């Protein structure tokens, strides 16, 4: 019974951290959209902005989850980054059926999300 309760608490903490990461994503993408609108950013600048958004969002989520769990913070941060990426991939597949980017782009996004989450967990 105690182990089941502990597992449910960890899942709840993961979901709360994912929510925090997605809130940061929303704010950062809103800022990026305003900058794009006002400054007419180039495609390369927008790409950098999206990369920074992935990193900061996963870092924030990993940091939140690391604070909540207290043990194996880097593993929980890594888990958060992977879960964030899987949700991102699912949303991309729903929004653009049959239009996924190349495997290299997918793996790069996975690495960014995983590294950001792990760094957040380690530094929490």
From TrEMBL:
<keyword id="KW-1133">Transmembrane helix</keyword>
<feature type="transmembrane region" description="Helical">
    <location>
        <begin position="106"/>
        <end position="123"/>
    </location>
</feature>
<feature type="transmembrane region" description="Helical">
    <location>
        <begin position="45"/>
        <end position="65"/>
    </location>
</feature>
<keyword id="KW-0472">Membrane</keyword>
<dbReference type="InterPro" id="IPR023804">
    <property type="entry name" value="DUF3792_TM"/>
</dbReference>
<protein>
    <submittedName>
        <fullName>TIGR04086 family membrane protein</fullName>
    </submittedName>
</protein>
<feature type="transmembrane region" description="Helical">
    <location>
        <begin position="74"/>
        <end position="94"/>
    </location>
</feature>
<keyword id="KW-0812">Transmembrane</keyword>
<dbReference type="Pfam" id="PF12670">
    <property type="entry name" value="DUF3792"/>
</dbReference>
<feature type="transmembrane region" description="Helical">
    <location>
        <begin position="21"/>
        <end position="39"/>
    </location>
</feature>
